TrEMBL record:
The keyword Transcription applies. Residues 17-114 form the HTH araC/xylS-type domain. The keyword S-adenosyl-L-methionine does not apply. It holds the Pfam family HTH_18. InterPro entries: Homeodomain-like_sf, HTH_AraC, PchR_regulatory_protein, Tscrpt_reg_AraC-type_HTH. It comes from Niastella koreensis. This is HTH araC/xylS-type domain-containing protein.
Length: 116
């Protein structure tokens, strides 16, 4: 019985690892935590707990951090803020600006200017 529990724990850890890889590979992914958990055959809450224990933050926060890091990268490529907002699936430019400002303490335009 104990080895069976070890196998289950390992499988759940592997699910968390796959979720992290999915986010790392595509920070713009819009797949929900519930859908990821359902696909893996575990509860959303279990996935959240295991992910947070393994990687130090909830899935939603991790997704946001990766999305914002990708936004910074895109800002260095010369793309317009409108293009970046669309690529990152924000509903509007102001939604993207607000999210970026909340996360980094400055707007995307300010960050771009200060980076130079």
């Amino acid at each position: 019985m104990a080895s069976n529990n070890k196998y289950i724990r390992k499988e759940i850890l592997n699910v968390a690892k796959r979720v992290k890889k999915l986010i790392d590979d595509d920070p713009t992914t819009r797949i929900s935590t519930a859908a990821l958990a359902n696909e893996a055959g575990i509860s959303r809450n279990m996935l959240q707990i295991v992910f947070k224990n393994r990687y130090g933050s909830p899935i939603g926060r991790y997704k946001l951090r990766m999305r914002m890091a990708h936004a910074k990268y895109l800002l260095t490529t010369g793309k317009s803020i409108k293009e970046i907002a669309i690529m990152l699936h924000y509903s509007s430019i102001s939604s993207f600006n607000n999210a970026f400002r909340t996360f980094y303490g400055q707007s995307p335009s300010e960050w771009r200017v200060r980076r130079r």
